[in-house]
Amino acid sequence: MSLSVSFLADALAVAHQAADAAGRVIHARYVARDFSVEAKDDATPVTEADREAELAIREVIRAVFARHAFLGEEHGREGDSEFLWLIDPIDGTKAFVRGYPMFSTQIALMHKGELVLGMSAAPEYGERAWAVRGGGAFLGSNASDGLPLKVSAAIDFGPMAAISTGNLKSMAGDAARWNALGGLVGRVGRIRGYGDFLHYHLLARGAIDLVIESDLNILDIAALVVIVREAGGVFTTLAGGPIDLDTRDALAGTRVLHQQALALFNP
């Protein structure tokens, strides 16, 4: 199957429907505080809402794309296809558990190793971002009200620049990169730690200029990669490599600042 404009449009419509289905499951549990919390093998929390939302997403997608494969945070890998749906039903489960709305549902489509669709839905926060390859990126509250996204025009790390960091545990153990980050913090006007989906949404709409993370997995960022790129930004690993299923860190920003940051973190 070729990736025509019509196919990507159909896939995006299904991703919106899947995000809606997950949102209904998550909202009911979130509002009622109706869930128990378990610790997974990696010590991160999981709830009934995580598991049920992922099943809801798979059901919607499978009804249209029966032969596509899945890789999900809670239910693992299923199927073998050149089309792979990447699902994190609740990215930010710790926020969900503690009752604040900085969590999202992340749905992405990968075709032959290339990310071609991204859906980042954060209904309790009140926004949703989405993009398909070559089609631009959009931000709204649902499929019908999206406005185009564009990264900022920032070209230097001066007093007007703003950066955000996510998890940095691994970077803290790398003296050269940690010192580079310290130097960067001293140059910019704002340093924040919005984390999870939020700083990538802010980046894509031009509110911040660079995002740095050193401890993540592909399900955390797959959808956001497409969104940031379609908004005109650059999204790679900290070393400047491609984003793939083995990715564990990220550097995303405007084209100019991303290039400058790469030089700082990889002297």
Characterization of this structure:
By secondary structure, this protein is α+β, with helices and mostly antiparallel strands. About 35% of the residues lie in helices and about 25% in strands. It has 8 helices and 15 strands. The strands form 3 sheets. Strands 4-3-5-6-7-8-9-10 form an 8-stranded mixed sheet, with helices on both faces. It has a 5-stranded mixed sheet with strand order 12-11-13-15-14, sandwiched between helices. Strands 1-2 form a two-stranded antiparallel sheet. Helix 1 (about 5-30) packs antiparallel against helix 2 and helix 6 (about 195-205) packs parallel to helix 7 (about 220-230). The longest helix is centred in the first third of the chain and has 28 residues, at about 5-30. The radius of gyration is 18 Å and the shape is globular. The model has no long low-confidence stretch (mean pLDDT about 95).
- Largest beta sheet: strand ordering: 4-3-5-6-7-8-9-10
Number of strands: 15
Percent of sequence in beta strands: 25-35%
**Uncertain regions spanning at least 5 consecutive residues:** none
What's the multimeric state?
single chain
Class from secondary-structure proportions: alpha+beta
Q: What does the average pLDDT come to? A: 95
Number of helices: 8
* Radius of gyration of CA atoms, rounded to a whole number: 18 Å
Give helix and strand order, one letter per element, not per position: HEEHEEEHEEEEEEHHEHEHEEH
Rough shape? globular
The biggest sheet, with number of strands, parallel, antiparallel or mixed sense and barrel status, is:
8 strands, mixed
Helix content: 25-40%
* Ends apart, CA distance between termini: 43 Å
